[in-house]
Amino acid sequence: MFEGLNLSDEEFQLYQKLIYDSVGINFTDNKKQLLVSRLRKRLEMTGLSSYAAYRRYVTDPNNAEEFVQMINAISTNKTDFFREPQHFDFLKHYVYPDLSKKKQVRIWSAASSSGEELYTLGITVMENFPNLVNQDIKILGTDISTKVLGEAEQGVYSEESVGPIPGLMLRKYFLKGQGRWEGHYLVKDELKKLIHFRRLNLMQPFPLSAAFDFIFCRNVMIYFDKPTREDLVARLAAQLLPGGYLFIGNAESLSGLKTTLKYVQPAIYRKVY
Fold first, then answer.
1. Does 77 count as an annotated binding residue?
2. What is the pTM of this model?
3. HEC secondary structure over the chain
4. Is the CATH number 3.90.1140.10 carried by domain 86-155+188-270?
5. Is 89 assigned a catalytic role?
6. Where is S-adenosyl-L-methionine annotated to bind (predicted)?
7. Which of 22, 25, 257, 264 is deepest in the core (most CB within 10 A)?
8. What does the domain layout of the chain look like in residue ranges?
9. Which class does domain 9-74 fall in?
10. Is 218 annotated as a binding residue?
11. Which residue is catalytic, options 42, 55, 143, 213?
């Protein structure tokens, strides 16, 4: 049924617009085959016989859940524990000393994927906040993908995944799986209690009342064009407390964008007013 299935250039352009308008991801012309490979399984799952039929299906308001499944399929979710470690060094030396004295601390991982970044933040908070029990600390993790949010909330990781976590921290914050969970590690409840999850589309107005001490939005904007990046950065900046920090990916930069945030060092910016 699917052997001769092709995505025409015209249909690809319709998908480009649909995806860009809904989630801001820019599938350039050279990524057509990537889109084909990621959508093919969804066609098989729904039993639809063409990409045109699938596009009509996901844009029907009655099929909102399949639209979410499509976004899950096309999203890139590469992440690791302690990825880009200089960011966590910066937090330890320049951010946490002040935050550890505050009564209330709010942290946001804006594209938290399957949770490695979130739990890394939680570990570093627990390691650097000596008065933790007397503070109101919440770490929010959001992602557009319900699939990876579910994985993050479960908090189960393979032995290979937890490799970057120092041994002492691994034993302190994770339970080693046994039986059918052998070769896996489970996040302990004391760490999980700091973390809150919700689905959020970065392209839509943020339904968040909190202002944050710092925000991680790393390795997301590489998929966006300049106007989309500029708009997103402005809205992220509006969610920061004065003096708050925005961390982006090492492969990203705000250079050339109109922003009120001030450069601190590569991939780290600050709201100074």
1. yes
2. 0.79
3. CCCCCCCCHHHHHHHHHHHHHHHCCCCCHHHHHHHHHHHHHHHHHHCCCCHHHHHHHHCCHHHHHHHHHHHHHHCCCCCCCCCCCHHHHHHHHHHHHHHCCCCEEEEEECCCCCCHHHHHHHHHHHHHCCCHHHCEEEEEEEECCHHHHHHHHHCEEECCCCCCCCHHHHHHHEEECCHHHCCEEEECHHHHCCEEEEECCCCCCCCCCCCEEEEECCCCHHHCCHHHHHHHHHHHHHCEEEEEEEECCCCCCCCCCCCCCEEEECCEEECCC
4. no
5. no
6. 77, 79, 83, 117, 143, 201-202, 218-219
7. 25
8. 9-74, 86-155+188-270
9. mainly alpha
10. yes
11. 143
